[in-house]
Amino acid sequence: MESLNEIVSSGVNNVYTGTSILIGKNEKILYKNTFGTKDENEKLTEEDIFDLASVTKVVGTATAVMRLIDEKQIKLEDKIGKFIEVSRPKSEVTIFELLTHTSGMQAYSNLWQKYRGEELLKHIINIQPQESFYKCYEYSCLNFITLMKIVEEVTQKHFKEYVKDIFNEIGMGNTCFNPKNKDK
């Protein structure tokens, strides 16, 4: 683990301010450590809260979608028009294409500057793919926002509630969206 300490310490010194690492196997903790600071003067601790931010796509959204696939409630080849009301050609985009960023959706939208909440979601859901539809990879948050809406439609639960249930089942009860703790 000495080389891990060196690698992470180098990152803290050169790339990021701090991190917390836990490695486990079969319910046994093999390694845990914190590195760096949460601000200029305060050392990071095991108790500090991190915002998942873009990791939410993999940890929350992809996990929720794959759970629904495992439960045979949806399929990778299902078209999104099966779950949400949206016009063509977007209605022809598949779950797989959303997950793999091959839906043709633009990388980003500034709709958040104009709309909030459900109104924002409605506008994002209705953004149509670009001309490169299905032809190439383009990372897009809009894909995963659409997937979140599909999870809500299929489960009839708020996305946060559904994912929290999954987190609790797998022992990640302290994992959440939008942490309230200001000391994160």
Automatic annotation (TrEMBL):
Domain Beta-lactamase-related: 16-181
Name the record gives this protein: Beta-lactamase-related domain-containing protein
Keyword Hydrolase: yes
InterPro entries per record: Beta-lactam-related, Beta-lactam/transpept-like, Diverse_Enzym_Activities
Keyword Chaperone: no
Lineage: Bacteria, Thermotogati, Thermotogota, Thermotogae, Petrotogales
Domain of life, source organism: Bacteria
Keywords on record: Hydrolase
GO molecular function: hydrolase activity
